[in-house]
Structures are given as C-alpha cells and as structure tokens.
Design a protein that fits this description.
The chain is mostly helical and 103 residues long. The chain has four helices and no strands. Helix content is 76%, strand content 0%. It is elongated, with a radius of gyration of 17 Å.
Length: 103
C-alpha cells in the first residue's frame, strides 16, 4: 500500500479552511446588514457543514458554545472533509494512470 503524503493533505485542509472562513464571514456580514443574499450563503454553509451536521443541525458553525468548542467542531469537520477530498483526488489520479497504461 502506498503511503499518504502529508503536504497535499495540508494544502487541501488549509484551502478548505480559508474558503469556509470567508463564506461564513460573508454570511455573518450579510445577516447583520439584513441582506437577501443570505439565501445564497446559507445553503453553501449547509453543504460545508455536512459530515458533522449529521450529529446536530447547528454544528459546527452555529452551536451555542464557547469559541474554543466551535473551533474544535470546525477543525474536526475540516479534517473529515479534507480526508474525503484528498482520497477522491488520489483515486482520480490512480484511475488516470491506469487509463494511460491501457492506451
């Protein structure tokens, strides 16, 4: 079995972290200004919170806990999402290599 590399996983992890932080920040600002654009950001946030929101709907972003606990939920959610995305990327690369060998 091939070893998994840490650097590509961390790239995926931090890319997802930045994207999610920006979208949640935009959603908070739109909510404060009472904009109708929250109808766009809310479904995006629901998609980003998918793995851990199966436990409770408000996880990981809107839980009524301390900031530390929110950060822990978010990092756990990011870890799960990053692992899935990284494994999908590895699988696609493997399929691509096998298709090139067949040609």
């Amino acid at each position: 079995m091939k070893k998994l590399k840490l650097r590509p996983f961390l790239i995926v992890f931090f890319a997802l972290m930045v994207i999610q932080f920006v979208i949640v920040f935009i959603d908070v600002q739109l909510t404060k200004s009472k904009s109708d654009l929250t109808s766009i950001t809310n479904p995006i946030i629901a998609i980003f919170s998918l793995p851990i929101s199966g436990i409770h709907r408000s996880l990981p972003f809107y839980v009524h806990e301390s900031l530390y606990i929110r950060a822990v939920y978010w990092v756990v959610n990011l870890f799960i999402q990053s692992a899935v995305v990284y494994l999908v990327i590895l699988g696609l690369q493997r399929v691509r290599r096998k298709l090139k060998k067949l040609k």
